[in-house]
Amino acid sequence: MKISFVIPVAEHIEWLADCLRAIEVSGKAACEVILVCSGETDRGASLGRQWGASVVNAPVGANPATARNAGAKAASGDWLAFVDSDVIVAQDWVTVLNSWEGKDAAAVGAPFRAPRESTWVQRAFCWMRTGGDAVEPSPWLPGGNMAVASDVFEAVGGFDPRLDTCEDVDLSLRIRRRGDAVWSDPNLRAEHRGDAPTLAALFRAELWRGKDALAVTRRHWREGRELRSGVLPILHWLLFAAALLFVGVGKPGIALASLAPLVAIWCVHAARMLRRAEVPGIRSLAAALAVACTYHVARAAAPLRKSGYHRDPKEPGA
């Protein structure tokens, strides 16, 4: 089967050469590589041409969904492999994807791995990602390490360009709603170089990623996992508001007590993350708790941002 790699590129191209090199090692000869450039300069396009990639221009500042759709439109492969420019695929990535030919799968992918030279925040954040060590059905796949059968991608309308974030969750759920299978295959290993290296960077990243989470939850509320993703930020708002109210009326003890459920949520999440830690222990638990707390607070604050989902009465795949 023919595979078309689609790689969206904006201004940050520090890992693009490594990304293209990894694809070449994995089996570029049997693949098509399409670079979708949306930056203000020609740096990404120039580098892509040096590696033999086709270049498609997207509007400056186009979001990932728009860029990936533009690349998919220009692709000729049976499968569309969506890989981000800061992602390094494993040497056998193409071989593993080819092994899915003829099987009951409309989309396959895997959670990202932490960078080889990673910070403790990057390692702990990796523990948060879902997906085990077995090939199994998955509720959704990350947009930077997933492959979709081209006919299925076209049938569901591609990524929703109105979503700046969570477009990968939305696409995966629309594929599943259609009755097609979405699989997580841990053998499709990929390292994400662009993971946030510090708690401050993680907060900013999740503040951005979470801004369309409620829109996706509203669209797919029948999915239990997505309903939980929408309920948790609302719970944070309510309990934070209650704490502020009690502080305002001079009852700091009750204010602290009202935050106890949030602390419990963070602790439960950290405990689940700890199961995936290479060396479980006090330091790993502290790292998991710090990352879980940062993640949930940022996701709760994300909907307060002005930018986000561009509402339209017609939902793709509805």
Description:
There is one protein chain. The protein is an alpha/beta fold and 318 residues long. The chain has two domains: 3-195, Spore Coat Polysaccharide Biosynthesis Protein SpsA, Chain A (Alpha-Beta Complex), CATH 3.90.550.10; 208-304, no CATH class. Helices cover 47% and strands 13% of the residues. It has 13 helices and ten strands. The chain has helices at residues 16-27, 43-50, 64-74, 93-98, 120-128, 150-155, 167-177, 199-209, 213-219, 224-248, 252-258, 260-274, 282-301; strands spanning 3-9, 31-37, 54-57, 79-83, 87-89, 107-109, 136-137, 145-149, 182-184, 190-192. The strands form two sheets. It has an eight-stranded mixed β-sheet with strand order 3-2-1-4-8-6-9-7, with helices on both faces. A two-stranded antiparallel ribbon has the order 5-10. Helix 2 (43-50) links the parallel strand 2 (31-37) and strand 3. Helix 5 (120-128) packs across helix 13 and helix 9 packs across helix 10 (224-248). The longest helix has 25 residues, at 224-248. The relative contact order is 0.13.
